[in-house]
Amino acid sequence: MSYNLLKGKKGIIFGALNEQSLAWKIAQRCSEEGAQLVLTNAPIALRMGEINKLSEETKSPVIPADVTSMDDLKKLFEDSVKHFGGGIDFILHSIGMSVNMRKGKHYTELDYGFTQKTLDISAISLHRVLRTAWEMDALNEGASVVALTYIAAQRVFPDYNEMADAKSLLESITRSFGYHYGVKKKVRVNTVSQSPTRTTAGSGVKGFDGFINYAEKMSPLGNASQEDCANYCVTLFSDLTKMVTMQNLFHDGGFSFTGVTNAVIEQMEK
Amino acid sequence: MSYNLLKGKKGIIFGALNEQSLAWKIAQRCSEEGAQLVLTNAPIALRMGEINKLSEETKSPVIPADVTSMDDLKKLFEDSVKHFGGGIDFILHSIGMSVNMRKGKHYTELDYGFTQKTLDISAISLHRVLRTAWEMDALNEGASVVALTYIAAQRVFPDYNEMADAKSLLESITRSFGYHYGVKKKVRVNTVSQSPTRTTAGSGVKGFDGFINYAEKMSPLGNASQEDCANYCVTLFSDLTKMVTMQNLFHDGGFSFTGVTNAVIEQMEK
Amino acid sequence: MSYNLLKGKKGIIFGALNEQSLAWKIAQRCSEEGAQLVLTNAPIALRMGEINKLSEETKSPVIPADVTSMDDLKKLFEDSVKHFGGGIDFILHSIGMSVNMRKGKHYTELDYGFTQKTLDISAISLHRVLRTAWEMDALNEGASVVALTYIAAQRVFPDYNEMADAKSLLESITRSFGYHYGVKKKVRVNTVSQSPTRTTAGSGVKGFDGFINYAEKMSPLGNASQEDCANYCVTLFSDLTKMVTMQNLFHDGGFSFTGVTNAVIEQMEK
Amino acid sequence: MSYNLLKGKKGIIFGALNEQSLAWKIAQRCSEEGAQLVLTNAPIALRMGEINKLSEETKSPVIPADVTSMDDLKKLFEDSVKHFGGGIDFILHSIGMSVNMRKGKHYTELDYGFTQKTLDISAISLHRVLRTAWEMDALNEGASVVALTYIAAQRVFPDYNEMADAKSLLESITRSFGYHYGVKKKVRVNTVSQSPTRTTAGSGVKGFDGFINYAEKMSPLGNASQEDCANYCVTLFSDLTKMVTMQNLFHDGGFSFTGVTNAVIEQMEK
Predict the structure, then answer these.
(1) Closest-CA distance of chain D to residue B188, Å
(2) H-helix or E-strand spanning residue D266
(3) Which residue of A has its CA nearest to C181?
């Protein structure tokens, strides 16, 4: 299936690790819709993952970049602009890592050095990316930036740990920078708040299976899959959504506005 | 316990039916805090309920009023002002009835005549009350109006039926009239979105027990009781909250900002 | 420009009056994207408007229907299904009329008979439409329903009168029926909260010019136009947004998440 | 005026600098309402400010603490518990500093070292405070924690710079830790989102006068003052609000739910 919705567009995809990654699927769909891509991830993620497969499939170069390094980001954008022979039309930010979670630290016993790292990687990285593009004037008029987030930014999911706070920060940066980039060059910046999905990142969360089942039962349409998310991001990168900015868009089968379902009530009565 | 927080204040309490009623408990606490009251309810509710007990206990007259009748409301305010010998300082609106629910009509098969009645009684009644006071200039400067609502106005609880829509309408009227009355006379108008409680009204809802248990497990502090609600309303009627207006205030033990709890996840894994 | 995003899809468009109408532009774009349409409006609106032009241009039949009449709606769906030779894939609900505004009644002096009519036409009509489709099983699996709304449902715009309350009710019905139709047949129901536009409906609002300028200055991307809105609705009717439901989607150039702009501050300092 | 609402309660007040401070006024009102207090601030703020005056007036010891130092916080809580001869009933967190703003850095050219410091002082400090109390079990059952915030956490105010992002993070930490402390010991944690006030902190913001006038015109009740804020915080520290937690409570004269006012429209038409 292709509508050529992104024909002629050039985009940078952050965060494709392997076939389970949301970013992987999004890159595939963008490519099918006619976009040219640059793929990027942290050097260590590139070694662990299988990105070469995606690179071949989508005919996209892979440019490593540590999102906490301004030098790396500068090089990424320079090389991308050179590769594309022009400005960039869209960016996907699919980056998140809870260092405390990895190290088994509960929310009430955070290591603040880890927290700082989590915020830097998962949230401030979006500011760094946008600011690098801003300084180089690397984005085309009306370009579209999407960052992936999760509803833990609004409501507490206890096992999501300090990543909830990181996502709140990410959504605030989306609004703040979205304002300035909108005024300057009609660039739009939004977050997509996606259903939980069985990705490598997601599976690190304690009690993830119980939780994903709960989300499935609490969503009138069920959980949105990686493929669904990719389709939705394609619309946000296209020219059909030019006036949508500074929004947090729930893509979750209705979870966010469902207080309870009959399926959950039945389970509670057991 | 009394702080004399409402000493010298005069208020009208809509909706006290029996000891389980939120309005009943609120009237008691307002009285304890030094307020003088007028109690009111629909003529039929007065016959069914036990309001005389509350009337004696709080030394308050009972004035019947059908909230869908402008004549009744006019008389209520006239008699209240006469009784108090002056203007009114606060109003509690605790009125709601889902006619479709009573008649066993599912949300997808509403009787629209019933729906109109539900909206009229449960939501537009707040407009009628405020407008009657507005036209008679019956509220004192800085008076406080509180209407009770439920989170179904924001998220779907399937068995709550058309009452969810009525509560959304109620909250909108709160904001709309709150704006005008704030500009005119510094009157503040807010809704309190209360935990589910075992009242006569609540117990009419299908699957209410399963639901109230779910809400209890989803609230870090548990469900708020009638007594808790009464205490909270006292603060909103007092002079300590003069700049709070047009808000929907969740009084729910944290339910509204909790995505899931460990207690619910455990139940889902059964 | 056409991506064939709606190729093979069949839709019903409510509310196209003339070339300024949002619904008019949406119908044009849906047609360009390959959809077959049925156009409908109230008999009186059909006489006043210029819908025949749109009907010819998009090769769509016009079927009159008063949205407050279940008989009319039933006939509309029966005729549409017959015309299409099958089920319906999408519906646009662009219907709103403030009777009090027309009659010059201020929000504090509403005629409640008029209010009831406003709610019936502008909000409950969505329930009637969905319920008619539900009973006839006229919507295809995964069909998409969009109703147009305005941010006055969340925040007070004083001259918007009781239409603010109607839009709150509309958005609640969107969630409530969206839940049931999602569970039953994966139908998604959303509202699009659009920038103010110079339509025949909009121009009836007092102080509309001052207001539209304010909105323009408060939106980092400026106000979204009819064309922009049409493009956005196309994405919501397409298969790329199958997991978005029960949402209120702001389509407003960033107005909704902007607290103030430098342009407005400058004006305030004059 | 005193209701003895906080009689017998013990609280720690962070952030009273001088008579313009919100925390100053809040400390005065808490003292009037019968609370015993410990005052604290960063050592440098203590030198610059006039806290001794407040200390004498409220008969409260001053204990210096850098909120980014776990050792300082531990000592603060130890000394406070010793001073009070028992656990703590409430905490006010009124701490915020935008390092980039002070250094004249625009949001698009943040120094990330400064940003990290801003987040640490203005947001993560709340986690440190709560975690210190948690580890020492220093809070009494049902204790109340309030942090002051601003609506820039929800909507963009361009000159508010990275402090907007810090406030979003603060509000998320409020929810996250509020969940855990609620489950453990019925402690409630909330933010109060206050009108802009002419404090020493506020006056550092560029274009503050134009902005404060805008806020005044956009609030049906006008901007809330320091005194108003103090009164509201007293209710949140009292036993009357025991079931309110994880909320962001707007205390702003209606600003947050007002889309526009006639006063602003008139100014726009000039």
Answers:
(1) 8
(2) helix D262-269
(3) A220
**By mean pLDDT, which of A40-49, A53-62, B27-36, B224-233 is the weakest?**
A40-49
Architecture of domain A10-268: 3-Layer(aba) Sandwich (3.40)
Q: What is the dihedral of CA A16, A21, A25, A26, to 10 degrees?
A: -60
Contact A214 B157 (CB under 8 A): no
Domain extent listing, chain C: 10-268
- Provide the pLDDT for residue C169: 98
**φ, ψ for residue A61, nearest 5 deg:** -70, 155
Q: How many CB atoms lie within 10 A of CB B83?
A: 15
Measured between alpha carbons, how far is B131 from D254 in angstroms, rounded to an integer?
A: 19
Render D166-198 in DSSP notation, one character per residue: HHHHHHHHHHHHHHHHHHHH--EEEEEEEPP--
- pTM, full prediction: 0.97
Distance CA D268, CA A2 (A): 47
Residue from the list C221, C246, C252 with its beta carbon closest to the beta carbon of A254 = C246
Amino acid making up residue A107: Y
Kindly state the helix (H) or strand (E) to which residue D223 belongs, with its residue range: none
Q: What percent of chain C has pLDDT over 70?
A: 97
Helix axis angle for D22-32 and D51-58, nearest 10°, is 10
**Whole-angstrom distance, CA of residue D120 vs CA of residue D126:** 9
Which residues are C145's β-sheet partners? C91, C189
D66 CB-near residues (< 8 Å, 6+ apart): D42, D43, D72
Residues of A in contact with C224 (CB under 8 A): 243
Chain C environment of D219 (Cβ under 8 Å): none
Q: Rounded to an integer, what distance in angstroms lies between the CA atom of residue C31 and that of residue C259? A: 37
CB contact under 8 A, B264 and A214: yes
For D217-259, how does the pLDDT look when each residue is reduced to its tens digit (9 = 90+)? 999 999 999 999 999 999 999 999 999 999 999 999 999 999 9
Side-chain-facing half-sphere of B210: CA atoms under 13 Å: 18
> Which ranges constitute the DSSP H helices of D190-245?
208-217, 226-237
Tell me, rounded to whole angstroms, the distance of Cα B36 from its chain centroid: 18
Query: Rounded distance, CA B129 to CA B75, Å?
Result: 11
Distance CA C142, CA C147 (A): 16
Phi/psi at C58 (5° precision): -100, 5
Q: What is the DSSP string of D14-63?
A: E---STT-HHHHHHHHHHHTT-EEEEE--HHHHHHS-HHHHHHHHT--B-
Alpha carbon A130 to its chain's center: 14
Predicted pLDDT at C204 = 60
| Helix axis angle, C163-185 to B163-185, nearest 10° | 160
CB A168 within 8 A of CB A193: no
How far apart are the C-alpha atoms of B218 and B258, rounded to whole Å? 7
Residues B188 and B168: their CA atoms lie apart, in Å, by 19
What's the pLDDT at C209?
79
**C259 and D152 in contact by Cβ < 8 A?**
yes
What H or E segment, with its residue span, contains residue B40?
strand B36-40
Q: How far apart are CA D100 and CA D103, in angstroms?
A: 5
Q: Which string of DSSP letters, residue by residue, matches B179-219?
A: HHHHHHH--EEEEEEEPP---TTGGGSTTHHHHHHHHHHT-
- AA identity, residue C236: L
For residue C146, the surrounding DSSP H or E stretch is strand C139-149
Tokens of C145: 């329903």
d(CA D33, CA D27): 10
Task: Specify the 3-state DSSP secondary structure of A11.
Answer: strand
Q: What are the CA-CA distances from residue D49 to residues D17, D18, D45 (Å)?
A: 5, 6, 6
